[in-house]
Amino acid sequence: MFKAMALIATLAATLAACGPARFDELSYSVDVDGDQRVALFTCRKSSSGQCVFRFDGNASPATATVAVNETGAVSGVGPGTSYCSTSGGDGAMCQAQTLQLGKQTIRHSKRSS
Q1: How would you write the chain as a 3-class SS string?
Q2: Spatial CB neighbours of 69, under 8 Å, sequence gap ≥ 6
Q3: pLDDT for res 21
Q4: CA 22, CA 9: separation in Å to the nearest integer?
Q5: 8 exposure class (CB count in 10 Å sphere: 0-12, 13-18, 19+)
Q6: Which PROSITE patterns match (predicted)?
Q7: 111 contacts 89 by C-beta, under 8 angstroms
């Protein structure tokens, strides 16, 4: 009986240490105008309520934070510009991307414990 109770207690402690699973989700569209050197980012869905974009080079702003269902503009960018996107939530990774001419829709999701 004692062994069974000790086993249950050990199992419960192990499972409690795992914590709740987190789900990081990000969906946005980007429309790049190469002639104007402007990109419009529309945040469609984010587990944190916002989409965060970070840029290399001469982008202005260098970091753009856009709320869900809102659009933000970044100038000084064009096809080939490197950037990364994240939900900005705890533990969220910034996913590397390269801008392409025209409009794209991008989705990322990750489940972690």
Answers
A1: CHHHHHHHHHHHHHHHHHCCCEEEEEEEEEEEECCCCEEEEEEEEECCCEEEEEECCCCECCEEEEECCCEEEEECCCCCCEEEEECCCCCCCCEEEECCCEEEEEEEEEEEC
A2: 42, 43, 44
A3: 61
A4: 25
A5: exposed
A6: PROKAR_LIPOPROTEIN
A7: no
> Could you give the CA distance from residue 78 to residue 100 in angstroms, rounded to a whole number?
7
pLDDT digits (tens, 9 = 90+) for 20-76: 666 789 999 999 999 999 999 999 999 999 999 999 888 999 999 999 999 999 999
Please name each of the domains of the chain with its CATH number: 20-112 (2.60.40.1970)
Residues in the chain: 113
Residue with more model confidence, 13 or 55: 55
Amino acid present at 38: V
Q: What's the pTM?
A: 0.75
